[in-house]
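User: Hi! Is it possible to get a structure for several chains at once, not just one? Here's what I have:
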Amino acid sequence: MSDKELPVNVLLNNLGLFGQAFLGTIELFVVAAIGSLIGGLLLAAMRVSPVPVLRSFGTVYVNTVRNTPLTLVFFFFAFAYPRLEIASLSFFTRACAALIMYTSAFVCEVVRSGINTVPVGQAEASRALGFTFTQTLSEIVLPQAVRAVIPPLTNIEIALLKNTTIAAGFSVFEAGSVYQTLSERGYNVLVGLLWVAAGFVILVIPLTAFQQRLEHSWSVAR
Amino acid sequence: MTAVLYDTPGPKARLRNAGSGVVGTLLILALLGFVVYRLAATGQFDGSVWTWIQYQAIQVLLLRSLAATVTAFAVAALLSMLFGAVFAIGRMSDYRWINRPATVVVELFRAVPLLILIFILYFGVSRGLGVNISTFWALVLGLMLYNGSVLAEIFRAGVNSLPRGQREAAVALGMRKTQVMLHVLLPQGLRAMLPTIVSQLVVTLKDTALGFLILYPELLYQARYLGSQGQLGLPILPVGMVVAALYIAMCLLLSALANYLDRRTRRSKKRVDIDPTSTARAQNEVLVAQSQGGGGAAI
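Assistant: Yes, the chains can be modeled jointly so their relative placement is included. Here is the combined structure:
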């Protein structure tokens, strides 16, 4: 067995490549996660607002995005966006925009269903006490809803982490795209890809453990 | 109920709501208007970039790629249901040597991103092992492994949501373990989970778009190909719009079916009382699966 075929060597000889790729993955994940949280909260606020126009816009957006393949969103940002000649953005920015647009809809759904788990009496009681809409939301409903929201929200963000691989299909600098470089360097692509898969499992496990701990400790409270 | 959050608006609140409604509408219209303006300004609505839609050869090409998408979806849906049923039964088996491996398989394939799975099947296995797998089978098998694992969890949640008495009664009648599962538990569990299963099929349909990345000739691949044709005026945006409409329409139809089944299941009198927490868990599973274009739910 030559040096290049040993499974461990595929990883060790290309440690820089793997490191750089996973750093790209994490960078994309962090930016998109923060963006999608903000976007999702805005959308959720629209969907629970007393203004019918905003509510229906939120509903239409969420239902459309839930039925759109992420690959299609990426397709538009990768190939169609430059044709619009609005402003030239780097691929990284466009990938972030695609992920944020997509994930926001799911964050919104989770937040909204979390708000729905709060018993009606809670809001009614707070209104009877003279709380305003903002006060009801921020002092009574949201603190309770957060408990129901955080575990599935973590799941959505874990899914986002895996979705970053699709960016790899469209460009480079990302863990999913390692195979191209490996193949150019003459290493075994299968082993390289298996290492990438293992890397994702390693990234996902601590997040999942965190999520399960939250679910365990927070679900008892109510 | 979102109305929980606010009282029936009085005259002041109605005025305020109307005000924010107008501002909101204007903002949304401005955003949409800007996109349409950019589309028009860059000539995407010109007749010249839409001529392709008249060519019969291109219409046939698009229909063929639509068929390719639907075929991949149908085969993947069928295989993943089989895979899901087998591994759900495996995971619920009383024998440790069956349920342990089944658990590992289900958890593993839900943890690895679907795209990586497809790449492993396509690039990895063909170049690494020399076994040639066509783009179709790489896509379908990848979809089967991932969606099958999610479906296995949904089937299991369905069976677990049944009242304990069902199993106990079946055992009391002298049925064997296999009979209890196949004749009593699984049919009822499937019935309870039918809307959730169809929602998961929407995810499968969405994920067939990943075939684009390994150059399986489905809709997006054809859109890219047609969009790069100079003599048609590089119509990537027009073709993209048509393809997007096709994809979204297909998914919306399936989603509508899921909603219809959900309403019907709720109304049905035949249904045994099922445990709502298991159902909620399974629905969460699907929402998470939906949120990815090519990943897996949490372990």
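Chain B has ten helices and no strands. Confidence is low (pLDDT under 50) at residues 293-299 of chain B.

User: Great, thank you!
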